[in-house]
Amino acid sequence: MEPPSASPRAGRGPWQELLLAVSLLISWNPPTTAQVTVESVPPNAAEGKDALLRVLNLPGDTAGLAWFRGETILPTHKILLYVIDTKVTTPGPAYSRRETIYPNGSLLFQNITLNDTGSYILQIINRKFETALVPGQLRVFQPVSQPLLTASNTTVTEDDSVVLTCSSSNTGVSIQWLFNGQILILTDRKKLSQDNSTLTIDPVRKGDAGKYECEVSNPVSFCKSDPVRLDVEESMSQPLLTASNTTVTEDDSVVLTCSSSNTGVSIQWLFNGQILMLTDRKKLSQDNSTLTIDPVRKEDAGKYECEVSNPVSFRKSDPVRLDVEEPVSQPLLTASNTTVTEDDSVVLTCSSSNTGISIQWLFNGQILMLTDRKKLSQDNSTLTIDPVRKEDAGKYECEVSNPVSFHKSDPVRLDVEESMSQPLLTASNTTVTEDDSVVLTCSSSNTGVSIQWLFNGQILMLTDRKKLSQDNSTLTIDPVRKEDARKYECKVFNPVRFRKSDPVRLDVEDKRNSTGLRLGSIIGIALGVLLGLALMAALGCLLLHTRSGRVSPCCDLKELRSPASTPGHGAAIRCTYPDSLPSSTAAVPMYQELQHPEKNIYCQINHKAEVAS
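RESULT FIELD:
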């Protein structure tokens, strides 16, 4: 069908009158003719193509047609006006030079754009100048471009996860997934995002390997992505790293082995988290599974790992720590005292120049059994025995060790002596005269003790007069001298303890006569006795005279002289005594007479008389 001419005519004709009428009629809305419809051909138009809004069942009395863009018939929205009789087309403000109107009212769009999408209104004017409005709809879509399919990883292992993403430059598209050319069946392991652009497979299984595609579409076109192939490898198991020894000494050798249950893997070695640098001391086997270090050096201590890998994954072993120890040196065992007595305490100390060692104690070659009396310090370096018992005597050793060596100390012998009791010091006599002899004896209940003698707090100096017995328990002083007087003590001791006796004081007197008294004392006693006898004789004569009234013949006091009796006997006094003592009435005269004595009233002392036995 030929499109009508759109050239305007000169002057004013019937079509101009119709146009004026249409202009007047747009202000009111007559009933819509039910039979007239507008359809889009195609229903969904592709951008850049042609599209037709086709009018069906146009009435026969139609006089003119007008197309408007939008949902209202505003003058500014008018595209074209067509007069049937004159076949004249008049463009409106919305005309874009790509629209063409046909006599049957259909509107053609050439080289359609996305902006052409929307609603349109066809205004039909009949010859009675009645109008009808018929709506139309044009949908324009951009043809889809090929989408891009990407994968987080195209080679994965079982139990891994993978994410495939379908990217499109178009909007408003639908996405469909294909697996090996078939629509993908979703499962609980295969899930799509809300807009279907992302496919997640977690965990991956061997059966998920194959060709994946995504297809994007809209109402006017569709396009598939290039396929992406997913390869699924068997799961990579963790390798096992073992060492011939994890604690070695310098100059030793060690072999580390990396074992994997997977085949076709590569092995790499790590030291302290870094790739291991090989040297002439560190060598790998042909398949890299074994690392040999020979000889070992201190700097080889640290953390070793092996890593196995294939093109899709890798796994590290658990680390193995290699400790390079120095051989321990001999420890030194010391004791606060090697000879002690029961109930004392002793501390033994084990000293080592090594660090990070263990210490064990031995008693008489056996592991020491701890008790409430035998206790170790927190680091086991000190053994305290408190109190000490007799059975604790013996040989003590300490042994230090680390994982590669051990060493014992030289033994220390502990001797336990019995408790020391106080000795008893006795003397044969504590008071002696010069030229006498004295024996002092020191007695102890302890055996195997030494004895020392003290004089006035100082060690006793032996002389030819002061001699000790063979066991030093007896001190003999013979003869005694004045300077030997004062305090004596004895001290008993063993290698760990001593005790002193209580002191014994020795008194040394001057030399005595045969009676045992000093000469001056003897003379004084004799004179006293004689004077006493004379007074008694005089008193007896006085009493006799007083009673008889006469004076008895008495000896002259001048005749008194020293007795000639045998030694030990006193002088004999011969007097005549009255039969009885004077009465009490005669006491006063007798006293008065004694105040004025006469010579003849004293009795005569016969110094020759013998003393009655």
